[in-house]
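Late entry, written up from scratch paper. The run itself happened at the end of the previous shift, but nothing got recorded in the book at the time, so transcribing now.
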Amino acid sequence: MLAPVSPRQHRVDHLLIAEMVAAGSRVLDVGCGDGALLQLLADTKNVDGRGIEVARERVNACVARGLSVIQGDADRDLADYPDRAFDYAILSLTIQATRQPKAVLEQLLRIGRSAIVSFPNYGHWLVRARLAFTGRMPVTENLPEAWYVSPNAHLCTIKDFADLCRVANARVERAVAFNASGQQLGTWIPLTVHNLMGEKAVFMLTKQWAH
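Output as recorded:
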C-alpha cells in the first residue's frame, strides 16, 4: 500500500511530478539536490529511482538516506547514459542553472521515454514589476539569490520554454503553471496568462520523431 503524502511536506512541482510518474517505473532525477523528489517517488510510486547531483555534500546526504545517487554534471555526464534507459528523465528547477539548456533537454528526451521539466517562470508579473520599478534584477522566493551569486545562468519564461520545446523537437504532453499560492492555473487559460500569472511551471515531454 502506498504511503499517504501531506501536500504541506513537499514542493508543489514535486507533487505534480509524482502524479505524472507511473508506479513501478524507472526514473532518473537529474540535479536531484537533497533527494526530496526521489524519496517522494520511492514512497508513493515505488519507483526504481536513480539520481545525479553535482554537489558532493548533497550526494553524500542522499546516499545516507539510502538513495541511489552519484555525483555528476547535467551538462557533461548525460551523454554517458544509453538511449531510453529510463521511463522518465526528470529535471526539477535545474534547467535554468545549466550551461547548455537545449543540449540538456535533448539528452533528457533521449535517455527517458518521457522527460519532465520544472522551472521558475521569469515572466511572472512580480518579476516583471520588480524589474520595471526598481531597475534591478529581481530577488523573489523562487529566485532568491542576488544576480552575482545566482547559479541561474539561463532564466526563461513559460513562452521561452515552449519555444525551446519546438526547437528541440519535443512534444508537450502536459504543461501546468502554478500561481503564488501553489494552485494550478486552468488549462483553458491562454499561454499569455500562464506566462503572466504562473510562478513555476512543469512540462511533461516526449521526443517528436521525424517522419
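The radius of gyration is 17 Å.
(Scratch paper discarded after transcription.)
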